[in-house]
From TrEMBL, chain A:
<dbReference type="GO" id="GO:0042597">
    <property type="term" value="C:periplasmic space"/>
</dbReference>
<dbReference type="GO" id="GO:1904680">
    <property type="term" value="F:peptide transmembrane transporter activity"/>
</dbReference>
<protein>
    <submittedName>
        <fullName>Peptide ABC transporter substrate-binding protein</fullName>
    </submittedName>
</protein>
<dbReference type="GO" id="GO:0043190">
    <property type="term" value="C:ATP-binding cassette (ABC) transporter complex"/>
</dbReference>
<dbReference type="GO" id="GO:0015833">
    <property type="term" value="P:peptide transport"/>
</dbReference>
<feature type="signal peptide">
    <location>
        <begin position="1"/>
        <end position="30"/>
    </location>
</feature>
<dbReference type="InterPro" id="IPR000914">
    <property type="entry name" value="SBP_5_dom"/>
</dbReference>
Automatic annotation (TrEMBL), chain B:
<protein>
    <submittedName>
        <fullName>ABC transporter permease</fullName>
    </submittedName>
</protein>
<dbReference type="InterPro" id="IPR035906">
    <property type="entry name" value="MetI-like_sf"/>
</dbReference>
<feature type="transmembrane region" description="Helical">
    <location>
        <begin position="153"/>
        <end position="174"/>
    </location>
</feature>
<feature type="transmembrane region" description="Helical">
    <location>
        <begin position="257"/>
        <end position="279"/>
    </location>
</feature>
<dbReference type="Pfam" id="PF19300">
    <property type="entry name" value="BPD_transp_1_N"/>
</dbReference>
<keyword id="KW-1133">Transmembrane helix</keyword>
<feature type="transmembrane region" description="Helical">
    <location>
        <begin position="299"/>
        <end position="325"/>
    </location>
</feature>
From TrEMBL, chain C:
<dbReference type="GO" id="GO:0005886">
    <property type="term" value="C:plasma membrane"/>
</dbReference>
<dbReference type="InterPro" id="IPR003439">
    <property type="entry name" value="ABC_transporter-like_ATP-bd"/>
</dbReference>
<feature type="region of interest" description="Disordered">
    <location>
        <begin position="1"/>
        <end position="23"/>
    </location>
</feature>
<dbReference type="InterPro" id="IPR050388">
    <property type="entry name" value="ABC_Ni/Peptide_Import"/>
</dbReference>
<feature type="domain" description="ABC transporter">
    <location>
        <begin position="27"/>
        <end position="280"/>
    </location>
</feature>
<dbReference type="GO" id="GO:0005524">
    <property type="term" value="F:ATP binding"/>
</dbReference>
<protein>
    <submittedName>
        <fullName>Dipeptide/oligopeptide/nickel ABC transporter ATP-binding protein</fullName>
    </submittedName>
</protein>
Length: 594, 332, 365
């Protein structure tokens, strides 16, 4: 869930916003007082807690809207956070996240498996038994072979590009298996790391232990896929359902309709409640319009969970605040200092920038406390186990130095050997208005301590080749890179390994922009992956975060918050840390089925 | 007349081939020069160089340009098969490319979305033609009057206000505010009345912009025509004023109007991007916008070609209509 | 014609100021003024004349003298199709066959147009609609006044085209104006004008746009047709030569007024106005040497907004100082009878004019 995939705001909507907002406000006053006010659960009522679970009735049509379609509905290929959240309607995994609010929702629970599995061989072997009654949409039972085949598909990156590759990295780090389509064995189940002794048993053999392996098994990419139903690259157009709902129709970029999978048995599924009869998703290209329809209650919920747009936010806060939640997302917005670009090889110069920055101004540039989020003080999201939020603030970013500290910055410059400041370049994606605004804020603050920064805007879709190429970063002298990052799964590994572990420094598509080569941090990650005790894992996570912050590689801007709206028809609504503060879609229900 | 038509048709075909070549060059050469790698954006977050290479192979981006052009043209007539990594995708003729981003052939996307945009464009065209021409004629006949000045001020505002402003405004008033219409697009095959309800605001919004332009052109042309000798002759014959205006003057006035209509319709069919975006109408414009966001080149290419084709056909239609209206053109 | 005489009786109720005239066409004190940003343009400023059936009147003058405005005034084309605020101001009386046109119901006048009075324009290419066939335009002219089907009207159109001398009329009827030569086009125009046998035909510079050989043919055609139909004809031209053989009476206009009027032979052989002399002098004569010809009228036509005081012609008149007391520049000369049915508006005495004509002008012509 990198940030470049999440926001879909229209430039023209922004441009028209100022003028139209007022009109919309008055218009909504006049006619928009329909059902929304009645029965709304209240502001933040579903933020980390369950709202109106007792009022839910079975049946009805749950209506999603989104300003963008999923990258793919193929369980192997999807990488958008909301796709993972939504995919639980039609796909099951061995394990999944608890359908519970907040931090509890980030915990795992058995789904197709009968229990959390048996770990043996020092964390290198996992054995699961499948629950009875799990079926495909044609009524045939889901077998361990189906699960293996579904996982094997992640190896076929040439055909099924786009999805996460954690399974491959943990089960076959050397990438020896060529994927099921090039698999010459008869049953195309040649992946050695997984055994399926019988239809009900599945055994995973990891070359090296990884304590987050269960997290990875809970990802959508670990869903079963039945071989005879695999349409390869076209699977995303109609995934074969293992969950309570199945695809009725799907037009890419237009709409998706799910109806009940009549073969699915509630008795076989301890997680999914399957309240509505039908789930629809309409893709709207006009955020202002879709926001207004959410506010009016024409739609129940925003599938992409990107939050309301500027004018929708204004109207909703004024008139329908009881329908809003303002949860912390898993995202942190930040600036990062590549050590290959002088003088950022010196930690004092990095610290100088951290002290010089006006953190309130950066928060404002991100959209302020509600739309932007809390001032970020460290690099581990509060929603991830071990995250401490603003309690850990080594540079006093949210307190003493929140408007910047020129004296401290100058001291650090002196220590760095650049007492009069220096010149550098801030790299920022040109398609993100808020990121450009933060770049400008930073530029202004740095000027006060003598650091002259140029702003280099680049095409955001080309990030992997521009800022993801260390040689290019060095060549272009991009000393400050503005980015954002969210966890793929809510642990320090799911968030931080690509950013901080020296093994993840790549020549293209690199995410360790700071080029951190810290043996302590690498060691802590190794320790983490072999530690099975949860309390210990949390402690290591906190420690990794502290090490990263002490190195001054990052200047955090915000712990991002979302401002999401739920219609008054919805019951059993709650946000979950499993999906970065999104509402948990799978068990949403309607209070009235009309 | 026939010779004239054949000549125009031939010119149109040559034009189309040139357009395809130019569009191809733009879409396949320019990214190369600009150093933009399409394949990279197809793979996931942890870009594995092998996967990037495989994707590049699959998209046919590693082939030389002339071979890509050849395969594209061939695909239009005999269809095309994409095979990579054990996955075979067939794209039946007429194959205008295959979008690996949304996993569908381009042609069905075009045929699916074309009628939507056509409905939008034609409906709006009828509206703006009637409104614009009527307002223009009235303004010309009541030159200098309060009506004339008022209509021309409205027309000026219509020309200068952007669609996303008038569009959002009309949604704010009629849909969110007064709740007269829902304003959401419904497919015509689902419900005709629903379709009408969803299209009425886009039609009005689009028609407002164009009616304004047409009113101004109509007024100016009508004023010019009214000064023509043959209008005096028509009156000298004893024809009533409605016949003089409605028949003799209108026929001449329609010539430039039709030229404009042809151009505008052609361009609109290619995609009323702003209108379709504002009202979430799943037409060609929306398809191309989404495709641009997703770097979905085949769709962009397909829509561009359809746009060019639409403009060409519209111009051809205008040329034919021209010959029907003005007998002098038939000689040319 | 019953409808016409009925209306005529109602409108033309004899009063003291406007007794119903006996002439077929009588124009009394016609004024046509156009308001503009620069002031009031007095295109026609008090014009009177009569015309009998079967007779031809030639109205002669330079461009801007008001002759075309007069003809359009008679046709009622200043009021028809006048849109916008600035309308032509028309006063006076126009009696056609006992009906006063200026005070009549505009729709009644419209019905007269094309049926009782018809017009031929200067440039047939621009006067014919380029998008309709010749036949369609003639058929339209016929059917607006006759309740007949298209077939009958078409037959009539072919008949008229044949009558005006267009070869293969049954084929040419389907041709477009641009497919005709200039002369043929004017013939078609004439056919269209005469399709309803009008009693009054106004030909506004009918030959100006044509080359010389065709000019004569068209003039011959008009003369023949007039004899055949017995219509009254007004020929408007800047060229005295055109009306020399055609007109019974000639009216010379200058600055929106009549400066001389009389039978053709009188105006040609005993002209009594210096402007008429000038016009005669500028007539091309093949039997004279170029150098001997009288120099045409010097200067340019008067402004119709600020018409020169006194005689409008005085700035250009070589004899402006002949009358005493600066009369030409202060007092506007009225038309006075200078012979039988012959009027002229000049301050010079009869004798002075006779002398100048016979001694100075005539020998040079």
């Amino acid at each position: 869930m990198t940030t470049q995939r999440t926001s879909g705001r229209r430039k023209q909507a922004l441009a028209a916003a100022a003028v139209v907002a007022g009109l919309l406000t008055t218009a909504a006053c006049g006619g928009g007082n329909g059902s929304s006010k009645d029965g709304a659960a209240g502001f933040d009522a579903a933020n980390n807690k369950v709202a109106q679970a007792d009022q839910v009735k079975k049946g009805g049509t749950l209506k999603f809207v989104s300003t963008q379609d999923a990258d793919s509905w193929d369980t192997t290929r999807g990488y958008y956070g909301f796709m993972w959240d939504f995919s639980r309607y039609y796909s099951r995994q061995l394990l999944t996240y608890k359908t519970a609010p907040g931090a509890e929702g980030a915990k795992l629970t058995p789904d197709l498996a009968t229990d959390m599995g048996k770990v043996s061989d020092g964390g290198k072997t996992y054995t699961f038994t499948l629950r009875d009654g799990g079926t495909w949409e044609d009524g045939k039972p889901i077998t361990s072979q189906d699960i293996k085949y579904g996982i094997e598909r992640s190896w076929a990156q040439d055909v099924l590009s786009g999805g996460p590759v954690y399974l491959q990295q943990m089960l076959d780090p050397k990438n020896t298996y060529k994927g099921p389509y090039k698999d010459t064995s008869k049953d195309h189940l040649g992946l050695k790391a997984i055994d399926t002794p019988d239809a009900k048993t599945i055994v995973f053999h990891l070359p090296t232990a990884n304590s987050d392996f269960l997290q990875v098994l809970a990802m959508t990419a670990a869903s079963p896929v039945r071989q005879d139903m695999d349409t390869k690259s076209k699977y995303g157009l109609h995934p074969f359902s293992s969950g309570p709902y199945k695809f009725e129709s799907y037009s890419p970029g237009k709409n998706l309709v799910l109806v009940r999978n009549t073969s699915w048995k509630a008795s076989s599924d301890p997680v999914r409640k399957a309240y509505p009869d039908k789930v629809t998703l309409d893709i709207s290209t006009n955020q202002a319009d879709s926001d207004q329809r959410l506010i009016d209650g024409d739609y129940d919920i925003d599938a992409s969970q990107t939050g309301l747009g500027p004018q929708g936010r204004q109207i909703a806060l004024k008139q329908h605040k009881d329908n809003l939640d303002n949860p912390v997302s898993g995202f942190i917005r930040y600036a990062v200092f590549p050590q290959s670009v002088k003088p950022f090889d010196n930690e004092h110069c990095r610290k100088a920038v951290i002290y010089a920055a006006d953190h309130v101004s950066l928060q404002t540039a991100r959209g302020g406390p509600i739309a932007g989020g809390d001032i970020g003080t460290n690099m581990l999201p509060p929603s991830v186990a071990g995250g401490e939020g603003q309690k850990y603030d080594p540079y006093k970013i949210a307190t003493k130095n929140k408007y910047g500290n020129v004296n401290l910055a100058k001291q650090e410059l002196k220590a760095c050997g650049q007492p009069n400041g220096f010149s550098t370049t801030i790299a920022v994606r040109n398609n993100k208005a808020q990121e450009v605004a933060t770049a400008e804020s930073l530029q202004a603050a740095l000027k006060k301590v003598g650091i002259n920064a140029d702003i280099y805007q680049y095409d955001g879709s080309q990030s992997p080749g521009i800022i993801g190429s260390p040689s290019n970063v060095e060549k272009k002298k991009l000393g400050i890179i503005i980015m954002g990052w969210g966890p793929d799964f809510p642990t320090v590994q799911g968030y931080g390994i690509p950013l901080w572990d020296s093994k993840y420094i790549l020549q293209s598509g690199n995410n360790n922009y700071a080029l951190i080569k810290d043996k302590t941090i690498d060691g802590l990650f190794d320790q983490y992956t072999t530690t099975l005790d949860e309390a210990k894992k949390t402690q290591i996570s906190t420690e990794i975060n502290h090490k990263v912050m002490e190195g001054a590689y990052y200047l955090p801007f915000t712990f991002e918050r979302l401002l999401n709206i739920r219609s008054s028809r919805l019951g059993n609504v709650y946000t979950t840390n499993a999906y970065s503060g999104y509402y948990d879609f799978v068990n949403l229900g309607l209070k009235s089925t009309k | 007349m026939l010779a004239y038509l054949i000549r125009r048709l031939f010119a149109a075909i040559v034009m189309l081939v040139v357009i395809i070549l130019v569009v191809f060059s733009i879409f396949f050469l320019v990214p190369k020069w600009a150093g933009v790698d399409i394949a990279t954006s197809f793979v996931g977050k942890q870009a594995d160089p092998h996967a990037v290479e495989a994707v590049r192979e699959k998209l046919g981006l590693s082939d030389p340009i002339y071979s890509q052009v050849w395969h594209f043209f061939k695909g239009i007539f005999v269809g095309r098969t994409y095979a990579a990594g054990g996955d075979v995708t067939h794209c039946a003729a007429p194959c205008f490319g295959y979008s690996f981003r949304s996993e569908q052939a381009v042609w069905p996307v075009l045929t699916d979305r074309f009628p939507v945009t056509l409905g939008l464009a034609l409906g709006a065209a009828v509206l703006w033609l009637v409104l614009g021409v009527a307002a223009g004629v009235l303004s010309a006949l009541k030159r200098g009057s309060l009506w004339d000045r008022g209509a021309m001020v409205v027309a000026l505002s219509g020309v200068s206000l952007p669609i996303y402003f008038t569009g959002l405004l009309s949604l704010a008033i009629f849909s969110y505010g007064l709740n007269w219409i829902n304003g959401q697009y419904v497919s015509i095959s689902d419900s005709f009345s629903g379709w009408l309800g969803g299209m009425i605001l886009p039609w009005i919004t689009l028609a407002f912009l164009y009616a304004a332009m047409y009113a101004r052109i109509t007024r100016a042309t009508m004023l010019e025509i009214l000064g023509e000798d043959y209008i005096r002759t028509a009156r000298a014959k004893g024809l009533t004023e409605p016949v003089v205006i409605g028949k003799h003057a209108m026929r001449s006035t329609m010539t430039p109007i039709l030229t404009m209509l042809g151009m505008d319709l052609g361009a609109l069919i290619g995609g009323a991007i702003l209108t379709e975006t504002t009202f979430s109408i799943p037409g060609l414009g929306q398809a191309v916008l989404t495709a641009i966001k997703n770097q979905d080149l085949p769709i962009i290419l397909g829509v561009t070609l359809i746009t060019s084709l639409a403009v060409l056909i519209a111009n051809l239609a205008v040329d034919v209509l021209y010959a029907v209206i003005d007998p002098r053109v038939r000689l040319a | 014609m019953t409808e016409l005489s009925k209306t005529g009786a109602a409108v033309g109720e004899p009063t003291d100021s406007s007794p119903k005239p006996s002439s077929f066409l009588e124009v009394r004190d016609l004024k046509v003024h156009f308001p503009t940003d620069d002031g009031l343009v007095k295109s026609v400023d008090g014009l009177s004349f009569q015309l009998e059936k079967g007779k031809t009147l030639g109205i002669v003058g330079e461009s801007g003298s008001g002759k075309s405005v007069t003809s359009l005034g008679i046709m009622g084309l200043h009021t028809a199709g006048q849109y916008g605020k600035r309308k032509a101001q028309i006063s006076g009386e126009i009696w056609l066959n006992g009906t006063e046109l200026l005070s009549a119901d505009p729709d009644h006048v419209r019905k007269l147009r094309g049926r009782d009075m018809a017009m031929i324009f200067q440039d047939p290419l621009s006067a014919l609609h380029p998008y309709y066939t010749i036949g369609a335009q003639i058929v339209e002219a016929y059917r607006i006044h006759h309740d007949v089907d298209k077939k009958t009207a078409r037959k009539r159109a072919v008949e008229m085209l044949d009558r005006v001398g267009i070869p293969q009329p049954d084929k040419r009827v389907d041709s477009y104006p641009h497919e005709f030569s200039g002369g043929m086009r004017q013939r078609a125009m004439i056919a269209m004008s005469l399709v309803n046998n009008p009693e009054l035909l106004i030909a506004d510079e009918p030959t100006t746009a044509l080359d010389v050989t065709v000019q004569a043919q068209i003039l011959d055609l008009i003369r023949d047709l007039q004899k055949e139909f017995g219509s009254a004809v007004i020929i408007i031209t800047h060229d005295l030569g055109v009306v020399a053989e055609l007109a019974d009476d000639i009216l010379v206009m200058y600055g929106g007024r009549c400066v001389e009027r009389g039978p053709a032979e009188k105006v040609f052989y005993e002209p009594r106005h210096p402007y008429t002399w000038g016009l005669l002098g500028s007539m091309p004569r093949l039997d004279r040497d170029q150098q001997e010809r009288l120099i045409p009228v010097k200067g340019s036509p008067p402004s119709l907004i600020n018409v020169p005081s006194g005689c409008a012609f005085n700035p250009r008149c070589p004899y402006a100082d002949v009358p005493k007391d600066n009369l030409t520049r202060t007092v506007r000369p009225e038309l006075t009878e200078v012979g039988t049915k012959h009027w002229a508006a000049c301050h010079m005495s009869q004798e002075q004019r006779e002398r100048i004509w016979t001694e100075e002008i005539a020998p040079k012509l």
